[in-house]
Amino acid sequence: MKIACIGGGPAGLYFAISMKLRDPSCTVDVFERNAPDDTFGWGVVFSDQTMDNLRANDPESAAVIADSLAHWDDIAVYFRGTVERSRGHGFSGIGRMRLLNLLQDRARKLGVGLKFEAEIDPSLESLSGYDMIVASDGINSRIREAHREVFKPDIDLRANKFVWLGTRKVFEAFTFAFVETPHGWVWAHAYRFDDDLSTFIVECSEDTWHGLGFDTMDQDTTCRACEALFAEWLDGHALMSNAKHLRGSAWLNFRRVLCETWIKDNIVLLGDAAHTAHFSIGSGTKLAFEDAIMLADALTQSERPLDEALHDYQETRKVEVLKLQSAARNSTEWFENLPRYTHFEPIQFAYALLTRSQRVSHENLRLRDPEWLGKVENWFAGKHGADQRPPMFTPFRIRNMELMNRVVVSPMCMYSAENGVPNDFHLVHLGARALGGAGLVYTEMTDVSPEGRISPGCTGLWNDEQAKAWTRIVDFVHTRSGAKMAIQLAHAGRKGSTRVPWEGDNQPLPEGGWQTIAPSPVPWDSSHPLPREMTRTDMDQVREDFVAATRRALDCGFDMVELHAAHGYLLSSFITPVSNKRTDEYGGSLENRLRFPLEVFRAMRAVWPADKPVAVRLSATDWIGDDGITPDETVKIAHAFIEAGADLIDVSAGQTTPLAKPVYGRMFQTPFSDQVRNTLHCATMAVGNIYEPDHVNSILAAGRADLVALARPHLADPNWTLRAAAELQYRGANVPKQYRAGISQLARNLERAAEMGELKV
Questions:
Q1: Separation of alpha carbons 555 and 509, rounded Å
Q2: What is the largest CA-CA distance in the chain?
Q3: What would the DSSP string read from start to end of 338-407?
C-alpha cells in the first residue's frame, strides 16, 4: 500500500510511524508545508495514561519522548490572594518543536518519506498515484474544507479569547492564575515543558479583551500587557510569542471541530482535521496519537474489505472522541462562564475547576490527593454545621425543613394506583426507600384531578380517600425513618389519557379515555387526540384543583410540596412555545406564557405554611434549539418562581416534545442546575443519569446543586444511600436499628475488598 499523509504534525507523523511498524513494506510519505524546524505554539501536555499508550505502540519512540518530558504532579490554583494546591495529577510537558523533531527522526529511521515545504493543492491531483490519502493537516484543514459536502464539518467558534505565549519562568506545578480587573476576569494556564521554558496561555471573555484594549495591540504589546497583569507569577520573566505567522495580536477563539464523516473514497481525516478538543483539557495530541494508532490497526489487522475496516475505525473512534469532546465542552463552558463561580470561596473554586470536565471526580481526587480532598470535605461539612464527612451526608435546611443528607428519591411514576388512591405497593415502595437512608423521598407525580392523570394508574390527591392513604404513607416514613416527604403535584394536560407503560408506552387509551386540555389545541403527536384549548374558566378550575391538593398535602403531613412545571405536562405546556400557540395574554412572550403557571404557584404558596418549603420542577431545555425553551430562558423562568416564593428549583430537561434531540451522558442535566444555581444564587436540585455516590459528591462539592435526585438507581436498590455510606466508610448514616447488623457487615466486607484491591471505592 502506498499512503500519503498531508500534514507533518503529531497526527501525521505518528500515523506514519505506526503504519511502518505494522507493515514495513508499505510506502508512507508525509507532506508538510512548513520547514522541519518551524513550529507554532509552545509546549504540549501528556497524561501518564497517554504515555502508557505510546509505550505499548512503539516503545522506542516512547522512550525517547519520555527522556525529554518535564513531569509534574501538582495543580496550583491562585484565586483572590490565595493558593490551593492539589497533588497526584501525573502530567508531563514537552516542547512542540522538540516532539516533532523526535517523531521526524523516528519516522526517517523506519523509512517514512518526509517532504517539507511541500504545498499540496486540495484537488490532490499530485497524489493520484497513492492508494490512500491521510488528511492530517490540522484544525484549518484545506482538504476537509475542499470536501465539506462529504465531511460535513460542524465548527463551533467558542466565546473566549486566548493567546498562546511562552516564558522562561519555570512553573513546577500546572498553574491557574486568576486576576480580576475593572473590565472583568483574565487568567493564565501555565505549565513547564522544558528545563527553562513554560507555556503561558492567557484567556478572558471577549468583553474583557476589548475592555483591556487587547483588540488594538500587536503581539509585542500584548506580551508586555500580560506581563503587567501576571507580574506576581512571572517573577520578572518576559512573555514571548512565536506566532509571527498570524497577523495582529495572535489572540484566537477556539474552534471546536466535529465532522459527520471522516472518510471520502480513499481520503481519511486524522487528528484536528476531523475533531478538536479544547486546550483546557490538554487532549488534542492525545486524540491525534490514538487516531494514528487505531487507523494503522484498521489498515493492517483486519481481513475485511478496506471500506468496512475504515468504517469500523471511524465509528469506534467517534465514540471515544465524543466522550472527550463532551469533557472538553464542560471545561470550555466552565471558563466561558467564570463569573458564575467567582463568588465561591477559594477552596470550592479550586475544586470546581479541577472537576469541571467531569473526568476528574470526587473519589478520583481522593486517590490523587486524599489530604487535600479531606480539607475540601471538612470545609463543606463545616459550612453546614457538621464534622468532616462526604458532601452527600451533610445536612441541608430549606425554611424549617432540615434534611439529614442531600440524597433525594426522585419522583417516579409507578402507575399502580386505583382511582388515584395509593395502596400497599406505594407504602412498601416509598417506605423501603425512606428506610434505605435517603434524606428526602418524593411521591410520584400526583395529579390534582381525574382529568389531570397521565394514565388510570396514576396517583391523585383530589379526594379524602386519597388523602387518607397518603397520610398512612407519610406517617410511616416519619415514624420509621429519618427521611422527609415531598409530594409533587401536577396536571398531565395533553400528555394525559394514556395507557400504563407496560401496555403501550405513551400510547392513548383505546377506550375509557377522557378529554385532555392544553393551552392550545396541539396534540402531543399524531397518535394522540386533540386537546381542548383551555378557557379562563378551565384555568380557574385547574388553579383551584392545585390549591385543594396543596391543602390536602398539608393535612397529610408532607414536609414539602413541589409544583410540576416540566416535561410537557399542563403547566410546562404553557411555558414552552412548542405547545403554547395562544394569542391572548397567556401566549406569545415568555412573560405571558409564564402568567398562568405563576398564578397557580402563588395560589399554592398562599395556602402552604410560611415555615414549609415549596419547590418547582422545570425543563431547562426543550432540546430543539432556539425554537424552544433554552437554558438562558430557564434562568429567567426560575427567577420568576423564586420571586413568587419558590425555595428550590428542581432542574430537569426535555420531555416537552417528541421532536426533542437530547444529548445524553453522565450527569447530562447537571449543567442546567449549575447555571440556575450560580446565576441566581438559589437552591437547586440536580437530576438526570446520576447513579454513583461519586457523582453526587462531585456535584455537591463543586457547587453545581444543593440536592441530588436519583430515580433508576433507587428502583434497583432501595438501600442505595446506605450502601453508599458503607462504600465510603461513613459511619454516621441513619441506619434503621433493625438493619444495623447487615449494613455494618456490608461496610466491613467492602472495606476488606478495597484493601485487597478487589474494589475501588
A1: 33
A2: 85
A3: GGGTTTS-HHHHHHHHHTTTSSS-HHHHHHH-HHHHHHHHHHHHHHTT--S--GGGS-EEETTEEESSSE
Q: Which of 78, 191, 569, 586 is catalytic?
A: 569
Q: 683 φ, ψ to 5°?
A: -80, 135
- How far, in Å, CA of 731 to CA of 729, rounded? 6
Q: Phi and psi at residue 396, in whole multiples of 5°?
A: -145, 135
pLDDT in tens, 645-692: 999 999 999 999 999 999 888 899 999 999 999 999 999 999 999 999
Q: Report the phi/psi class of residue 493: left, alpha or beta, with left for phi > 0 and alpha for psi in -120 to 50.
A: left
Instruction: List all residues 6 or more positions away from 672 whose beta carbon is below 8 Å from its beta carbon.
Output: 620, 621, 631, 634, 651, 653
Query: What is the reported pLDDT for 49?
Result: 84
377: left (phi over 0), alpha (psi -120 to 50) or beta: alpha
Question: Given the C-alpha cell 508512507, which residue does it identify?
Answer: 28
Look-up of cell digits 441530588: 708
How many angstroms separate the CA atoms of 426 and 82, rounded?
A: 52
Three-class SS of residue 615?
Answer: strand
- The count of other CB atoms within 10 Å of the CB of residue 396 is 19
Question: pLDDT tens digits, residue range 551-582?
Answer: 999 999 999 999 999 999 999 999 999 999 99
Distance CA 709, CA 442 (A): 9
Q: Which residue has the cell 410546562?
A: 572
- Of the candidates 94, 91, 102, the one whose C-alpha atom is nearest the C-alpha of residue 36 is 102
> Above 90 in pLDDT, residue 174?
yes
Q: Which three cell numbers stand for residue 438?
A: 435517603
Q: Give backbone dihedrals phi and psi of 94, rounded to 5 degrees, phi first.
A: -150, 145
Beta-bridge partners for 748:
none
Q: Which of 177, 9, 172 is nearest to 78 (CA)?
A: 177
Plot region of 316 (φ>0 → left; ψ -120 to 50 → alpha; else → beta) = alpha
Indicate if the alpha-carbon torsion angle 602, 604, 606, 610 is positive or negative: negative
| pLDDT in the model for residue 459 | 98
**Residue that the C-alpha cell 469506534 belongs to:** 316
Active site residue 14: no
Rounded CA-CA distance 260/258 in Å is 7
- Rounded CA separation 249/163 (Å): 8
Contact 134, 270 (CB under 8 A): yes
Instruction: Give tens-digit pLDDT for 626-645.
Output: 999 999 999 999 999 999 99
The predicted model scores a pTM of: 0.94
pLDDT of 761 > 60? The answer is no
Instruction: Please check the confidence at residue 81 and state whether its pLDDT lies above 90.
Output: yes
DSSP strands (E only) in 593-703: 614-619, 648-652, 684-686
How far is residue 278 from each of residues 93, 102, 756, measured CA to CA in Å?
17, 25, 38
Residue 511 CB neighbours (<10 A): 4
Q: Closest by alpha carbon to 359, among 635, 547, 556, 90? A: 90
Contact 234, 136 (CB under 8 A): no
**Mean per-residue pLDDT over the chain, rounded:** 95
Buried b (16+ CB within 10 A) or exposed e, 532-567: eebeeeebeebbebbbbbbebbbebebbbbbbbbbb
- Contacts with 667 (C-beta within 8 Å, 6 or more apart), sequence order: 358, 686, 688, 689, 690, 695, 699
